[in-house]
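Quick bug: Universal stress protein output formatted oddly.
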Amino acid sequence: MKRILLLTDFSENALLAAKQVALCTEAWHTEAVLVYHTYNSVTIVNNEPIVVVNDEVKAAKEKELQEWMEQIKPLFPAQVDLSHRLEDVDLPIGVNELCSAENIDLVALGITGQTGFAKILVGSNAITLMDICNRPMLIVSHKVVPAIPKHVLATTDLKEVDRKLSLFDLDQVLGSFSAQLYVLNVAKRESAAAELAQELKYLHERLDKYKPVYDYISHDDVVTGITEYAREKHIDLILSFHKKQGLLASLFKTSISKKIAWNGAANLLVIPMDSM
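Here's what came back:
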């Protein structure tokens, strides 16, 4: 995690995310943290684009960002290059472009759960980030006190195990923090015996070196089952492998990763299964 993109809307939840990232930078040997805030000066009225943000608003946002930087600067070790960027662009577009241009390893943001739809940091646009961001995302819950992760949960449905575990170097989490790994099988239905045996083989080959605790639960609601298990084991961080659904699918179906993030039982590290 050499280079981290930290999103902010200057809220308390964004501050929690900053505190969490700052605590991890030493273990991750982080070299740079880029703080990013976006606003969108274009809105659509009667199918026509209208610019609604003027220079005074931009100046006010620049001032607010500078003040926020002064607030979080003491949180970070001196060796971390802390910089900031303000852009007039849709958040998801800006994030992906910056990730590519700045060789970002991790995107970090805050989240707060609410009744019904949850609102993720910096407005409704951010809800699409999980589906389009091509870097791992650390989603920091407002329910979790910032701390070095010591109990990490990896959930599995015993599908594509080898591929999933090849997408992310778990040493960055488990080795860096000397964390205890819990592996939870949350499959709703049983696969064929031969297929299951092969997936279990991959699982043990990849994870046994971390001396994990393997568990299985049966629950009608997968998310509720994971949440209850996470609370029971005092989980700090949940690892979730996420497939991009696309805009149309996301309008009608909420992924397990999103539901877990909204629930906020622990911080969530979302690892994209599509090519980075």
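Actually, after a second look the formatting is fine. The first strand starts at residue 3 and ends at 7. Closing.
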